[in-house]
Amino acid sequence: MLIDLHAHTRPLSWDSYLTPDDLIERSKQAGLDGVCLSEHDYFWDPEEVYALGRRHDFLVLPAGEINTDDGHILVYGIDKYVYGMHRSGELAAHVRAANGAMVAAHPYRRQMPWYMDNERDYSDALERAARNPAYQHCAALERINGRGTVKENAFSAALCEHMHMAGTAGTDSHSRSDIGRCATRFEREIHSLEELIAELQAGRFEPVDLAGAPHRLDLTALSSGEHP
Question: What does pLDDT average to in each consecutive run of 10 residues of the chain (228 residues)?
Fold first, then answer.
């Protein structure tokens, strides 16, 4: 079952060009089975989300993307913003209380080195990123971000492997061209937010690149100066 765990719509996400209806219809056309509305620091009324799903006969689930001091965190299971959530530890406490789940969005941001001259530099960057305190609270890292470059997503993939953490995929859609680039494949059928959270907590999922781009850097080539 393919679900896009990370998408934005207007007007609740100020930087998105997508209406909810447009996102849902085009996600259906792309062959997805569901989509999460994860607006920036804002939560939909869950009943409005479910009404959208019924109207389109499509799985639409509420989520959110919270801007914390330790990066952007996708959250599932809470439905309102509370002051203090910009601190990842406090956000995690709210999510735990709601029996929700957290996924670190685009973990390459502010963590991938600008210059990767050799394998040691790259490894040092991974070590620094792995110390991000938010990750101890996350069920997964976003291994593939639909708007990330090959190098950026390769860093996220390497970080997942370095930390032995599960990886998800989300389009981070803000425009029509973003939709359908990737998704998270779940082993079991999901029909509700509670089932989604249970599968995230259990780790029964994998990231899928629907655009066919590679997401792994060849560190041997990198160390010899051959940048992909």
Answer: 98 96 97 98 96 98 98 97 97 98 97 78 94 98 97 96 98 97 98 98 98 49 36
Q: What is the pLDDT of residue 116?
A: 65
- Gyration radius of the chain's alpha carbons: 17
- pLDDT for 192 equals 98
Structure tokens at 178: 């973003």
- Strands (E) located in the chain: 2-4, 34-37, 59-62, 64-68, 71-76, 101-104, 140-145, 167-170, 182-186, 205-209
67: closest CA among 37, 5, 16, 109? 109
Which region, left, alpha or beta, applies to residue 164 given φ > 0 means left and ψ of -120 to 50 means alpha? left
Residues 6+ apart with CB under 8 A from 174: 8, 13, 15, 16, 17, 18, 147
Euclidean distance between CA atoms 191 and 194, whole angstroms:
8
| Domains and their CATH numbers in the chain | 2-223 (3.20.20.140)
pLDDT at residue 117, as a whole number: 66
Please give the Cα distance from 185 to 204 (Å, whole number): 9
For residues 183 and 169, is the Cβ–Cβ distance under 8 A?
yes
